Fold these 2 entries.
Entry 1:
Amino acid sequence: LGSKIIHKESTPSTQVIAHQLAQEGSPHGTIVLADEQTSGRGRLNREWFSSKGKGIWMSIILRPEILPYLAPQLTLLTATVLAEVVQKNTTVTPMIKWPNDILINKKKTAGILTEMQAEQDQIQYVIIGIGMNINQTKEDIPIEIQSKATSLRVESSEKHSIKQFIHLILEEFEKAYDSYLINGFPEVKKKWERYGFKIGESISITTLRDQFQAIFSGIAEDGALLVKQKDGEIKKLYSAEIEWFKD
Ligand code: BTN
């Protein structure tokens, strides 16, 4: 990882640059970093605020030799990497909200956007976009997302070195990725479950079609969310928004 690093002061989105580079043949492990993104994007086409020098805005090009349907495992792997780095290097406790949000005190501090280019049964490349709020103060966070979003600084009352955090993430990512290629998903799943929702917890689920309450029952081998419905049936979900159930 990081044999090739492209650093931009300001760019619309590191994700867009990474796609271009990957299509031009940039190797596995290429990293695109920016101090600022002017149109950062999140999952479901949402806007991602990426103010100058306040966080990590980074895209990683991977060329994994796995089947395309397993790519969501890489999102879960990345979530465990971010959680581990926060756990080991700060005073706050991270939690993973399926599939890919890193929360501190139930507010989002990091997100992952995984995008893939595949043909039939072969992955051409995967881009893992990581956005992590580090040194924003409360005032730096747009008012409309203040109830849901936070930064490491807000939660820990400490400033952190962004450069060092990038280094820690890449180091941890490399270890986790190498081990994943050798040992497969079970290890990732075990770690994920250390930081993720606890099995048996009641959650509220919103899909494109409906909204319902169910019991969190873990994650499947392909990274899908498993929930137990009222009638006892276990449902596998690939795309949904989940929240803690508030009564
Ligand atoms: C999400 O939680 O919805 C995912 C957010 C991903 C944001 C990162 S920042 C670096 C990369 N470039 C982008 O435009 N998005 C991702």
Note: The chain has five helices and twelve strands.
Entry 2:
Amino acid sequence: ATPVSILIATGSSARRGILFKEGSSLERLRQTDVILMDKTGTLTEGWPQLKEIHAYRGGGAYVLSRAAALAVRSAHPLAQAIVRAARDRGTLLPEVQQFHEWAGKGMEGHVEGSRVRVGNRKWLLEQGIHPDRHEDLPGHTRLYIALNGECVGSFVLNDKLRQDARKVVQVLKEKADVWMVTGDEEPAAAAVAAAAGIHQVRAEMLPEDKLAFIQELQGRGRKVAMIGDGINDAAALAAADVGLAMGGGTDAAKQAGDVVLIGNRLSSIIGAYTWSRLTMRNVH
Ligand code: ADP
Ligand code: MG
């Protein structure tokens, strides 16, 4: 028989900004005992601001124009922040050839004969490029720019915690074990997690690391909900017992998720949990 209450629940939940692609995810959501939360675009607004430019060579306008030339090709929130900053300054963007983006790492391309890389410290180190160590501003993210294998500058970006993040986390902790899983580096991850009230953090996670962590938890019999927004979250969203995608996120995430928070409100996840419990009470 058709579980009528599930149809009713999914129908009215869509009006509240939650889209369940199929009724069965409600049942699975009710059973989850771990929630993994992505940082950028999920716990944070996903609308970072470029706060500082450090140029070791060529000047601020020069390094910004090179970085923005690559960034305009990317959908990553950090890349988009660099583009906005360049537009605000009226920067002309040089042409880019052979653009390539590395999930969780950065992006590269050829600009006026030089190989330009923009990405995080760990990735540049992997490429044999040694960025200067900086004093980290708590909760801020730093990206580096390299020209022909030499680090020539860095950018400090800040993405605001969603205003309701702490409250949402507090409620979720009553329902399940809450973790933050992020591709960002340890100091930035730890500061945002602390502000959100999350005490379990995995940082510097590549897309495949997020996936492996879910499989490890499932191997121990845990039922996992994952909430994320990025291309880097798609594999994890698909593998989780229930994947929840932020409505403001990438198409890849929304396609991979079982549930889409179409209003892009983090608090909708609480609505989804409440819904899953109410519905099951009606079914049985
Ligand atoms: P999160 O899991 O927090 O959403 P991501 O996996 O999307 O983070 O990114 C992790 C890190 O990888 C970023 O903090 C950044 O350092 C780097 N990165 C990924 N894609 C890009 C890009 N297009 N431009 C610059 N940096 C990037
Ligand atoms: Mg993200």
Note: Residues 49-158 form a domain with the Calcium-transporting ATPase, cytoplasmic domain N fold (CATH 3.40.1110.10).
